[in-house]
Amino acid sequence: MGLLRVLPLLLFMGVSALAQSGTYGVGRTPSPEEIRAWDISIGPTGEELPPGRGTAKEGAQVYRAKGCAGCHGATGIEGKAPILKSKAGPAGSDVDIWARERILPLRAPFATTVWDYINRAMPLNREGTLTADEVYALTAFLLNINGVIPEDKVLDAQSLPKVKMPIGDRYAPLPEWKPRTPRLKGYPY
């Protein structure tokens, strides 16, 4: 019976000692290589883009080979997944960009955003399996079928960030915000 009275005290003292050490004896600091492997974000300047290249013609082949049509349809508009091609015509047509469907290659503010999304999220349930060349090719394919770039344009780490997107500078600006203030006017009341 005496041990049962002392056990909670011993547990409390052990937990207190661990809490004071700050590490709790769990985990480790990741190596620089591990951090680089996890840091896959691609910004507007494309500084983080890997080596590789691709064209729309190569992208059409990748689209068929990787089964993209299974979700997006043979031409990018028939599938159950979000459509990839504007039904209202190419990027230079008279239909306002905001009146078109929500199509990533048209509404993205930067071409690098299209590359980043494909690299991170496609193909469904096999994310991260595409090579850099395949991602460049698919990006070129999607931009081409929406009239953003010509079919023979080669996309790589240097040319991709220079692509002028149809949305131009008309994407939503970030709202002004100061620390310790509601992020949205009137929120939460």
Q: What Rg, in angstroms, do the CA atoms define?
A: 24 Å
Number of helices: 7
Work out the strand percent. Answer: under 5%
Q: Strand count, sense and closure of the main sheet?
A: 2 strands, antiparallel
Give unreliable regions as ranges. none
Strand order of the largest sheet: 1-2
Number of strands: 2
Indicate the percent of residues in helices.
25-40%
Estimate the global geometry from the Cα principal axes. Answer: elongated
Q: Measure the end-to-end span.
A: 56 Å
Order of helices and strands: HHEHHHHHE
Regarding quaternary structure, what we see is single chain
Report the average pLDDT across residues: 82
What structural category arises from helix and sheet content? mainly alpha
Structure explained in plain terms:
- With 189 residues, this protein is mostly helical.
- Helix content is 37%, strand content 2%.
- It contains 7 helices and 2 strands, in the order ααβαααααβ.
- It has helices spanning 2-21, 32-38, 56-65, 69-72, 104-107, 111-121, 132-145, and strands spanning 53-54, 155-156.
- The protein has a two-stranded antiparallel ribbon.
- Helix 3 packs across helix 7 and helix 6 (111-121) packs across helix 7 (132-145).
- The N and C termini lie far apart (56 Å).
